[in-house]
Amino acid sequence: PTDNRGNTNSETREAAKMTTKEALDAAVAAMTDSSSRSLYDVTIICTTDDHQADYWSTRLSEGVCRKPPSAAEGTKFPLVLAVSEDWSPGGAGNGLGTLYAYQKACRVAKDKHGIDIPGLMGEKQISAALYHTAGKGTRLAPLPASENNNKPGVKLPFCQELSDGSYVPLTVLEAVVKQTGVYAPSRNGRLSVFWGDQVFIPSASFSYVPTHHVDIMCTLLGETAPTAEEWAEHGLEKYGVIAVSKGEGKNAAQVEKVDHATAVKMLKSLGDIGQVGPSLGSFSVSSKMLEALCEEYSSELSAKSGKFDTDPHFWMPLTLPAEDYVSLMSQKGVADDVSKGHHERMTKMKADFELGDMGLFGAVDVGSDACWWDYGQLKLYFKNNIVALETNDPSAQLLRRFLGVTSNKMDSALKDEVEVDEKSCVSASSIESGSIKGSVVSSVNALEVQIEGAIVVNCTAKKIVAGKNTILYNIVDLSEEGIIAGEGDVVVSVTEEDGKMMELRSKHDICGGKAWKQVLEWNPLSFEEVHNKNKNANVSAIEKKRQELHKAASDSFGV
After folding, report:
1. Cα(314)–Cα(51) distance, rounded to whole angstroms?
2. Dihedral, 437, 441, 446, 448 alpha carbons, nearest 10
């Protein structure tokens, strides 16, 4: 068999023999090749509401997912389909949520574009990916509030060029879509599912031939199964763990948060264990398995009721014996009779499913030396953006390549009076005077700046002063004194559709999740109250208004 690049299994195995550096370099090259970007034919975004769905349909089509110059005339791919999860209160869980968003996107594709996604998937003519973006983003507060609850729209302080030639900050979701696209050529006829706040560069080959109807991404540790001591050393009892058999079929199973002895007992059905490692959660399924899951859960999908997640409700009952599954679920507080009934349901589905020449459940190794950047917490947002400035760090060099950073001043109008040190990066900015040291500055318009050890994104003011560990974000300031932020200050602006702006503050060392319900001393409302106020905001209209406010302010300053 071959993958979608025409590689045979033997060629894919040869690719797997690459050194870590070669694999990392190959992955970044594939992610950033402007002439032949790796993209899924269909990109599905599962959003919180219809306004966010409209925003992402337009934004991705104009940016990361726009048609390449080499695209055949009249082609409808790559295609972006963004849909909201209009489920009953409490949500669908990521299992039913995946199936529901896929079916809803298929209806939109048929009605708006005349495209039969299930048919094309069944014929292995296209690849599709679905990105889950829902969630409040409490630990990233107050940045998602500044995006009016559009959490995946949080901006990174590095710019990309849109189809109209403008330069704007890359969002977290766009970075994830850009990164995960490297798996697309290997996955025709499959739906890939990802979560929207982590970027990684795999140190194992991203090109492979799928051998299982379900494959889940994981970090396999070593060439042999870990001993009890190694299991404890890696902290595997804290994770969902994927175990792969030594057998030729490389079948896999999943256990969750168990010690070594329990795992060995539960995984006996696999035979001898070859490799083990923590799950990333992201997975892909064949069109045949996708169809079977949609059929099995058709009653829940029609009624928009129930809540099932992939790991505990799909993969674990499909790969573990009933007794072990019931035991694991009891640790989650699920009654034994409920777990037993669910296991019977999935066992029947498995018995009725014809595997053909593929296995049921397998693993895709991203490599134990993969590079990771998580943007889901405020401290990590700061750390993983500032780290790109480390010129001697190999992983930081990869991150800069991924982000398209080629110099410390890009697409900017900086007067000679602006001093920018070599450990800073300034993009898409217009600045008249001042100094920038050890900072990342993007889409900033100012007459004067004094910025050191800070991140400043999408801000317009006469003067900007920012100290170490400071984040300034989405601010328009018309005052003479400008924006003055001390060390560790986090200052954002929340814009409404009519242009009214509210300042929201926090500190570098405050976890928004823990402070979610508190009214911090600098703020008129708690983060939770701002989130409730932002619900169902028209984020496209607000983004347009925000751009108008920035332009009017910068024009008035003469910047």
Report:
1. 31
2. 0
Amino acid letter, residue 169: P
Query: Is pLDDT at 2 greater than 70 in this prediction?
Result: no
* DSSP H helical ranges for 353-465: 378-386, 394-403
Give the pLDDT confidence of 407-426 residue by residue, as tens digits. 999 999 999 999 999 999 99
For residue 87, give the DSSP letter: P
- Residue 146 corresponds to which tokens in the numbers above? 């500044």
User: Residue by residue, what is the 3-state secondary structure of 524-556?
Assistant: CCCHHHHHHHHCCCCHHHHHHHHHHHHHHHHHH
Burial 426-448 (b: 16+ CB within 10 A, else e): bbbbbbbbbbbbebbbbbbbbbb
Strand ranges in 188-251 using DSSP code E only, listed in sequence order: 190-195, 198-201, 212-218, 240-245
Query: Per the omega criterion (within 30 degrees of 0), is the bond before 78 cis?
Result: yes
b or e along 478-493 (b: 16 or more beta carbons within 10 Å of the residue's beta carbon)?
A: eeeebbbbeebbbbbb
Q: Give how far the C-alpha of residue 237 lies from the chain's centroid of Cα atoms, to the nearest Å.
A: 25
SS3 of residue 175 by DSSP:
helix
Determine the Cα–Cα distance for residues 150 and 162; give it in Å rounded to an integer. Answer: 19
Pairing mode, strands 42-47 and 371-374: unpaired
Report the C-alpha gap between 219 and 214 in whole angstroms.
16
Which pTM was predicted? 0.94
Average pLDDT, the chain: 93
Phi-psi region of 534 (alpha: psi -120 to 50; beta: other; left: phi over 0): alpha
The values of phi and psi at residue 405, to 5°, are -85, 115
Kind and range of the H or E run holding 142: none
Structure tokens that stand for 167 in this block: 């330069």
Do 533 and 525 form a contact (C-beta atoms < 8 A)? yes
Tokens 């025709």 correspond to: 188
How many whole angstroms separate alpha carbon 352 and alpha carbon 329?
24
The pLDDT of 461-488, averaged and rounded, is: 97
pLDDT at 151: 95
